[in-house]
Amino acid sequence: MKCPYCGYENEEHRLYCKQCGRFMGERNVVPIRREVVDIIYKKASRLRDIGLSDEAEDAYKELLMVDPYYIPAIHDLAFIYSGKGRVKEAEALYEEILKISPNAADFHNNAGVIFDKSGNSQKALKSYKDALKLKPVHPESLLNMGSYYYQRGMYDAAIYYYKKFLRVRPDSKYVLNNMGVAYAAMGDWMNAENCYRKAIAIDKNYLEARNNLGLLYMSKGEYHRAISIYNGIISTDPSYVNAIYNLALVYQEMGSLDKALSLYKQIVETSPEYYKAYHNMGFIWYKMGKWRKALECYKRIVKKGKGTAEIWYNVGLVYAKMGCFKRALDSYRKAVEKDPSYKQAWNNMGFLYFDNGFYSDAEYCYNMAIKIDPMYDKALNNLELLKSMDKETIKGKRKGLIEKLISTLRCIWCR
C-alpha cells in the first residue's frame, strides 16, 4: 500500500506507514480501531501534558495493545520512560521504532536524543549521523550534532554543524550565542563578538548573549565596555545575578576592591547559595589582610559541603597568615586529598614543616610538588635551600621551635 502522505510503498497489511508512521487506511476499513486509537492517544497526551505521567504511561500501553505499531504512542512512552530515568526501557522502545520505520530522519534524531539522555553518547552520535544521511539538511539533527560537540568542548566540530543549522534557521539566537562561546574558547574574539551581536540583534533582551559579550570585553581588558554591558543588563533585570557577579569581577580586575566587595555582598544577601561570591569576597579580604573576614567567607562554603581543593588551599593560606600551624596543615592536607596534583598545597605544606623544624616532612612535601611538576620553581628552590643547610644550622634552627609550636597551636584565632 502506498502512503498517501509520503509516497512510501508499504506492505499491504500495514495500517501505518513504515516511513512516516501516519495512518494510511481509509476510515471505513477499520473504523472502530482507528477511532479507539485516536481517543486513547488524545487521552494519553492530555494526561502527559498536565504532568500525570503514570496515568499517561498506562494509557499509552493500553493504546499499544490495540495497535502495537502506532509510532507516536511508542515515541511518547519512550520519552516518559526517559524522564523517569528508565533509560534502558526508553532505548528499547526507540530501537523498536527504528525497526518499524528505519527510513525516517525524525525517528533517528529522536533516538539520538534518547540515547544522549541515557549517557549512550556513541549511539546518540550514530543516530544523528544516520538522520543526516537520510536528510542532509535535517535541522534538528544538525542542531543536536552541534550541541553534542559543543558540550564536549569540541568547538571546531560544533561550529561546523551550527553553521549548517543557521543556513536553515538563521534566526536562532541560542545557536548564535553558543557559537560565540565556542569562538571565544578558541581565542577567536572577533567572530565571538559578531555571534553575540547577531544574537542580541534578534532579541535585545537575550541577557545570556549580552552577559557573554561583557565577559568577552573583560577578557580583552576592555573594562569600561564590559561595565557598560553589565550595567545595561542590570537595568533591564536587577535580579540577573550573573551580571552583578561579573560586574564585581570587572571591578576586582581593575583593583576597585571596595566596589567589588559591595556587589558581592549584594549577591550573597539575595542569593546566599551563590558560593562564587563568597569565594571572591574571601580572596579580597585576604588581599586586604582581613584574615578573620576571609576565613568566615571560606567557612561558609565549606559548611555547605562545597569545599573544593582550591577552597581548602585558601583556608590554609589564611590560617598560615594567622600563625595557626596545625590548622593550616590540616587545610592543605584536605586540599591534596581532594586533588592530589595540587602542587601549591604540597609546596606550602613543605614550607610550614620547614619553618617549624620538621625537615624530613618538608622534604617529602617538596618532592611531591616536584613530582607533579618537575619545573616548579618554588618547590625546587625550597628543596635546594633545605638540602644546603648543614647539621649545625639545622640544630640551631631547632632551638626555640617547641615554644613557637606551642604558641602556634594555642593561637587565639584557632580556638
Q: Give the overall shape.
A: elongated
Assigned CATH architecture of the domain at 311-415: Alpha Horseshoe
- Number of separate helices: 23
Radius of gyration: 31 Å
Say what the CATH topology of the domain at 311-415 is.
Answer: Serine Threonine Protein Phosphatase 5, Tetratricopeptide repeat
Q: Can you describe this structure in just a few lines?
A:
By secondary structure, the protein is mostly helical. It has 23 helices and no strands.
Structure, explained:
- This protein has 23 helices and no strands.
- It has a domain at 311-415: Serine Threonine Protein Phosphatase 5, Tetratricopeptide repeat (Alpha Horseshoe), CATH 1.25.40.10.
- The model is unreliable at 26-32, 399-403 and 405-415 (pLDDT under 50).
- The longest helix has 19 residues, at 31-49.
- 39% of the residues are buried.
- Helix content is 73%, strand content 0%.
- It is mainly α and 415 residues long.
